[in-house]
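hey so i finaly got around to running the thing on 4-carboxymuconolactone decarboxylase from Aliiruegeria lutimaris. pasting the sequence first so u can double check i didnt mess up the copy paste, my clipboard has been acting weird all day
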Amino acid sequence: MSERYETGMSVRRKVLGDDHVDRAEANKSEFDAPFQELITESAWGTVWANENISPRERSMLTLALLAAAGNFEEIPMHIRATVRTGASKQDVLEAFQHVAIYCGVPRANHAIKLAKRTYEEMEKE
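ok and heres what it spat out for the 3d tokens, dont ask me to read them lol
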């Protein structure tokens, strides 16, 4: 694998945790392996590996963008990642409040519901 892939896998593990990445890798098939390589190199090995903004800020941006675009499926995963990125519950709420103002209350409302549910699950674990 490329150096960017190796960097991406390292960053991905730091942000999402070994358990999550191990599950994703175990579920990888021949069909989606090229896609997994693409996101590992581009999202994790390029964007998340860039040190110009902190992992905390990147978490907040990612959550806001996911909510703004209506890509709700990945919000719980990125809420769980806040334990490792340093984004607090208040940080996440602030990001979703920006979504409400600039992209719509329904999207922010749904994202907040997902965050609340995920935080509750995390507290029980």
